[in-house]
Amino acid sequence: MYENKNMKLRWCRVIGIFWLAVSMTVFGFGQSPAFSEKELLNKAAARSGRSLADLRIDPDDLEFYGYGRYRLKIFSKLIEDPLEAAPITRILCRTLLNNADSLWTIAFTPWARIDEGVRRGLIERPEKILLDLLEKKPDVRRVLTGEFGLDSNLVQLMPDSLVIGLVLIMWEIQNSCDWIKAATARITEQDIDTIMMGLTTEGENGLSNRRLESLIDAVDFKGLAAGAMDLGYVLQAATGIMKNIKIDKPVRCSSRLGRIAIGTTGHETYDDGFYLLIIDFGGDDEYVSCGVSGKNNPVSVLIDYDGDDIYRGHIGPGTGICGYGIVIDLNGNDQYRAEKIGLGTGVFGEGIIFDNGGNDTYDADVYGEGAGLFGAGIISDLSGDDRYTAFECSQGFGFVKGCGILVDKDGNDTYIARDDTVKYASSQSSEHNASLSQGVGFGVRADYTDGHSLAGGVGMLIDGKGADQYSCGVFGQGCGYWFGTGILVDYEGNDEYNGVWYTQGAGAHFAIGVLLDSTGNDKYVSTMNMAQGAGHDFTLGLLVDYSGDDAYDAPNLSLGSGNANGMGLFMDMTGNDSYITHGGITLGGASTASRGGLRDMMKTLGIFIDGKGHDSYKEPSTRDHKYWRQKPPLEPPLETEWCIGVDL
Fold this sequence. Notes:
This protein has 648 residues and is α/β, with parallel strands linked by helices. The protein has a domain at 124-408. The protein is 26% helix and 30% strand. A 16-stranded mixed β-sheet has the order 1-2-4-6-9-12-16-20-24-28-31-34-38-41-44-43, with helices on one face. The protein has a 16-stranded parallel β-sheet that branches. Helix 6 (103-113) packs antiparallel against helix 13 (221-241), helix 7 (126-135) packs across helix 10 and helix 10 runs antiparallel to helix 13 (221-241). It is elongated, with a radius of gyration of 25 Å. The relative contact order is 0.10.
């Protein structure tokens, strides 16, 4: 038996490697450019007389100044080897995009990015264990009535496939509750209330950094990940088993775990309190505060098979607070709205929205649309022309020990971090919001308060096909802050990016910001500062555009520029591109921004590389098919200020 399992595992690995190769070929990251990233960097290094291995922030220099608990492996990997940052990011994001229809994959991935992934199902999958157990039960209906306390008269009227699906889900919810209770036993209801009060009102979260540390240390995140992944496996199987069911009359019933509702193919409204489980088979339905878990109700699952549905609530659907909140919508043009936080949001838990198709709208205020705060949050939308709107900390936002992911596989999509009304003014410009959206990792900087700085998490926005539009204020579009890692990857389409400050592959204070765009004639506009491959204060800012005739409108500190020992790296691989700049440090510029201190001895790197194509520049010192070195702005120039500009 053991040998057979090993043989199966070996064949799984072989098949997996084969399909990975096929997927990278058939679904590859854009057209083949004239050079690879490393080849371009080799050419730039050779032109500048530098060693390729030296094109990075020195880890010892970073460690000398920066600190923060809960620093993640992905941050360390990318900051220590920035030349591999783009290939590593491509592989991670493509793997998720290719598996965006897998509930267990999307449940697993955010936990893996915060170093808490578990490999449930590697040897034996949870749903198979339950199905095997089900075969041994002489009367499946008695499981619902005996183990879970459902009304026997109602159960007798249910179709067989519904009974089987319900038993599987209820068993796994029971298991999930056990995982959650054990993992979060040391978090009190008062702790959660204090955190939620801070998140849903203006101001701070209400807990000191020390208290947050103690709560994070008290949680078994791997236990939370295990329960979420098991539930993903079982929900995937049960959802398939129950499809095509027709119910004549709606059902509302209680169970030992919580309330259950089963809907028909007609219109229904669910607005009367917490539901453990809702299964609705069609119709244009309305859900109020459904698919939201809490400390005393750790699991809430909602499955809707069809219809143009409305999901709304002060805390939006698909929000896991000290547990799991899951929404699965399989068809229809749907509206998702959170009056405050929510929509694929996890707070010491996991929130999931899986939307299979339709032209959908998502609207939140803060901490939504794929946001993880001490936990995991994800939206996976497979198709349709979708619109995402929020003010702050949304659309792929990762806070401390958190990962938030928004993945949209297909469609002409619009991503708006609202800047038309100033609601959360940034410290950089009071005329603009601090967006912290569209792939942002954000930490707690406390070197000027109590000293308990906390490393940021991972925020990812991944878009597959379509002509997409992105807009934000300050901090967004692949941006990191205080050991956070922010990633935006767009694969196919003519896309537009509009931002203000710290946008489009940028960041500040020991962080990583990455924007990768594969194909299409794209337009990048940033109006104020730090954009388009710009790193400030030991930060790596990276923008790579792989193909297309692209247009860049860039401010100061942009287009592969480093500041205060940061590293800015910009690469446009191929295409006839245009560059409009407005003065300042740009196009491969570097400025240590001080003189006379230890930082003078540490590198600041600005690298601009344009590969194949005929390009136009506004900057008089740069030209097509030339090498240049920008002059650092302060005197005397430092040997540690590395300014590299190459147009091949």
